[in-house]
Amino acid sequence: MTRISRVFFSLITLFLLIFPKGGFKIGKIPITWGYLLLGFTTLLLLLKTKFTVKRKNLTAFCLLLPFQILCLITLSLWGIHEVFTTLSFFTGFYIIPFIFLIFFSNYIETIDCNFFCKLLRRGIFFISLYGIFLFFFKIFTGFFLEIPFLTVNFSDWGSIANKNIFRGWGYKLISTYTNGNLYGISLLMLYPLYEGVEKSGWKKGVVATSLILTFSRTVWVGFMFLKIAQMIFIYRKPKELLYQASLASFILLLLISLFHSWNIPFSFFFDPTLGGRVEHLNALTTSNLFGDHPFIVGIAETTYLLILDHFGWVGLFTFFLFLLAGVISYFLYNRKRSTAIEKSILLGIATYLFVAISDGAILLIPVMPFYWFLNAFLLRFTEFIQK
Predict the structure, then answer these.
(1) 171: left (phi over 0), alpha (psi -120 to 50) or beta
(2) Burial 369-381 (b: 16+ CB within 10 A, else e)
(3) pTM to 2 decimals?
């Protein structure tokens, strides 16, 4: 791994994982340091570097095209309602996967796994620890600690408490992500890799605690899904199973204690409106084969139902093909048994696909960079390339 690659991945970790919201806005459009870094590096690759695209990456990219083409046709026929949402849509669904599967594929091939794991361990532990600190800092002081241009976007400075992070009886843990759901969903994707490379039990406990304090039902259910899948597909040794069961018991006891001490209403756990998402179920009965109305709202919550509403049943099918592009290519070209790290990456992807049923945060920074990095990183391990 070259020195340039090490610097690049260190900066990516700093500004996408640790400080993903740092930056400013032009109108409603957030300009973050992480996305600027991705764009600047891509331009350098275009102008300065000769690179080749391997067949496994090209195959994954081709699997994106049916959904992307269908979206272009739908938007050209029915139009858009809001420019900002549409720009976010094109960035997350066209530019980001293209960058990671095509332009960064050569760099990802050269990643020193030990170096990457060190960055991952330190980065995730930092945002978890900072998130817990900020959570209790808010409780004891009554306000959030905000560092403009770094932990918060400059345009959001002083207004974080006004975002949708208050539960009525307390604020969600938000860390440097300014949103509890966004933090939890992002971390769930990376958690299987983190737990596989982190040896310290108390540090794993810190990260798990930060997920609990998001007070996000989506994150909690996703975390349970992840732990169950780990026990079934990854940890098959009795000692590991015992550790996972003990951790799950600790988490349950912590939740019961917190709920009792903070008088959290029982209705929070069984909300008949599903957090306002129940109306999205109408898409199951009203959608046609293709989209038939302008692009109106962001694809943020109940991702699959909103895709169905905007792009129809054909759109939903091609969207699943889109999301599974890297996984399909991995299994097409991989002719060896999956290692523990590959299983962890697959579990991270699967966990995101699961939580997206409730809330995919798919247009929010930095969800798509994490998701497509995992796909591109997974393809790094495919040793068999057809001639």
Answers:
(1) beta
(2) bbbbbbbbbbbbb
(3) 0.90
